[in-house]
Write a structure and sequence with these properties.
Layout: E1 2-6, E2 9-12, E3 15-18, E4 22-26, E5 30-36, E6 40-41, E7 46-55, E8 61-68, E9 73-75, E10 80-82, E11 85-87, E12 93-96, E13 99-100, E14 105-109, E15 112-119, E16 124-133, E17 144-152, E18 159-167, E19 173-180, E20 189-198, E21 213-215, E22 220-227, E23 230-231, E24 238-241, E25 246-249, E26 260-263, E27 270-273, E28 275-285
Parallel strand pairs: 6-18
Antiparallel strand pairs: 1-4, 2-3, 5-7, 7-16, 8-15, 8-17, 9-10, 11-16, 12-13, 12-16, 14-15, 17-18, 19-20, 20-28, 21-25, 22-23, 22-28, 24-25, 26-27
């Protein structure tokens, strides 16, 4: 809300008389807000945003321009810039007083620029669109995307609003399995190697009770297990039924360190170095 001041003067016969100072306020009748459907994001996630423009005045505003910086931020000592969101073309929807309108013109993808927005007197307009996180989206426990929308046009000062979403915290596990040798004689010895990766911000600890299980067909005899280079003991670390071939780790035995997140100081791109644990199971084909 802007305030303005005025004062009058009278000049006569070398004398100047000043009036009192009057003050007035210019009411901002146009406002904008921005909200994300989800307050968190992950690598490559689709993020839906809603931009609401409200006109509390008695005159309509036509031909407005809406500009979204898609979370642009600076990084590194040289002050480079990166844009962590990529607008999904064709996802923009436009509503006036709750009624969907024809899609407005998108004149720029980054920053996202939309023109021809009309807001009736005492009414509102809403834009809904989605954008994917890209390789410049900050990763890790402190990761955050703050993107700002600005509405500009004739007859008013531009108005802006921002929305912040945070990188999803927690455990994010994946597992792969390999067999060596791939071809083995009857009653031959085989080695199964399981690589467990954690792409999350938090380590998988004993209290998380991550349980590994597999059903070996054919079953294995003389089975041994080793986790991160340490031998496991049957009944303490795992349970195995040689008749069915079912192997199950006991609660709290599988742990995986958290991932590490690194931003390239030159390009601004982020990479994930997953935390890794390895389980090796050996035995003879029964």
């Amino acid at each position: 809300m802007a305030t303005f001041y005025n004062q009058a003067t009278l000049s006569y016969n070398g004398t100047v008389a000043s009036s009192n100072i009057t003050a007035g306020e210019i009411l901002e009748v146009l406002s904008v807000s921005k909200n994300a459907v989800s307050d968190t994001y992950s690598q490559g996630s689709e993020n839906v945003y809603m931009i609401s423009i409200v006109n509390t005045g008695s005159s309509c505003y036509n031909g407005l321009t809406v500009t979204d910086n898609l979370g642009e931020y600076t990084f590194g000592e040289t002050g480079g810039t990166a844009v962590p969101l990529s607008y999904n073309e064709g996802t923009l929807s436009y509503y006036v007083n709750g009624v969907q309108q024809a899609s407005p013109a998108v004149t720029s993808l980054s920053p996202l620029t939309v023109t021809g927005i009309n807001v009736p007197a005492g009414g509102n307009a809403m834009l809904v669109y989605s954008a994917d996180t890209n390789g410049f989206a900050p990763l890790g426990a402190d990761g955050e995307i703050v993107n700002t929308v600005t509405v500009s046009g004739a007859g008013f000062e531009p108005v802006s609003a921002s929305e912040a979403i945070a990188y999803t915290e927690g455990i994010d596990l994946a597992i792969s399995k390999s067999l060596s040798p791939a071809a083995v004689e009857e009653n031959g010895e085989v080695t199964y190697t399981f690589v467990i990766q954690n792409f999350g911000t938090a380590a998988a600890e004993a209290v998380d009770n991550v349980v590994f299980s597999d059903s070996f067909t054919p079953a294995l005899s003389g089975l041994t297990a080793e986790f991160n280079g340490t031998a496991w003991v049957s009944g303490t670390n795992y349970a195995y039924d040689p008749d069915t071939g079912v192997f199950t780790s006991l609660d709290g035995q599988v742990t995986v360190p958290a991932a590490q997140f690194v931003q390239d100081e030159t390009t601004g791109e982020w990479t994930t170095q997953a935390g890794v644990s390895t389980l090796v199971i050996k035995g003879r084909l029964a």
